[in-house]
Amino acid sequence: MAAAGEGGTTVAQRERDSAGAPPVEAPDHRKGSRRRGEKLYSAIYEATLAELVDVGYADLTMKGIAQRAGASKGSLYRRWSGRAELVVDAVQHAVPVALEVPDVGSVRDDVLGFLRRIATVLNGPIGVAVRGLLVETVEDPELSAVVRARFIEPVTASMLEALRRGVVRGEVRPAALTPLVANVGPSVLREHFLLRGGPIPDALLVDIVDTVVVPLTRA
Fold first, then answer.
1. pLDDT tens, 63-94?
2. Three-class SS of residue 134?
3. How far, CA to CA in Å, does 30 sit from each of 35, 36, 70, 71, 151?
4. What does the alpha-carbon distance between residue 162 and residue 219 come to, in Å, rounded to a whole number?
5. Cα(163)–Cα(143) distance, rounded to whole angstroms?
6. Model pTM greater than 0.85?
7. CA dist 25 to 20, 22, 29, 32, 71, Å?
């Protein structure tokens, strides 16, 4: 009698069953499950922010992001030259806030509404990652340059546009149309967030506008 194997099946039976069966191939995880386009980028963005919160920007690596995202480092470097650009893209993907200051009829209301939109982002889940990112700009010139170009300068440009509208309405003195003046309100908000974190109280935003921005720019 043929010896019985596991589950009562004999060796002979297993040999007969396998003789006519096609060879079993190891599963190829590259087939059917490969993510492309936005699905891949979304996974990378989520992994980037999670890594940023867990290890901080100083210890953030493209390898760690790739492993968390289940992607290859090559897929990261094909789109991003380094971690600075990737982190900034990840933040913008998570909170695609328009950087234009809305025109609601007065400089005070325009700027207050704009600062409230920024505060909403900083008070949300992404705020921890953004705060860590801003802190690291002090020690990382490359990161500082990317953050300045992608976040700081566009905000300043939007504030300048709001002040230009104020000049046309007679609310703002022409001499106030400078990047330095335009950046004062957002800078005060960033400084508060860096030193104290969130949540940012709405009363602070009102104070920034009414005691800093408006008196500084009033015609």
1. 999 999 999 999 999 999 999 899 989 988 88
2. helix
3. 9, 12, 12, 11, 37
4. 14
5. 29
6. no
7. 15, 9, 12, 15, 23
Using N-to-C axis directions, what is the helix angle for 83-94 and 127-136, rounded to 10°? 150
Query: In 3D, which of 23, 162, 62, 42 has the Cα closest to residue 105?
Result: 162
Q: How far apart are CA 104 and CA 113, in angstroms?
A: 9
Quick check: helix, strand or coil at residue 157? helix
CA 216 to CA 193: how far, in whole Å?
22
Q: Which helix (H) or strand (E) holds 169?
A: helix 153-169
Dump pLDDT digits (tens) for 126-152. Answer: 888 888 888 889 888 988 998 999 889
| Whole-number Å distance between alpha carbons of 178 and 135 | 26
Question: What secondary structure, in 3-state letters, does 80-95 show?
Answer: CCCHHHHHHHHHHHHC
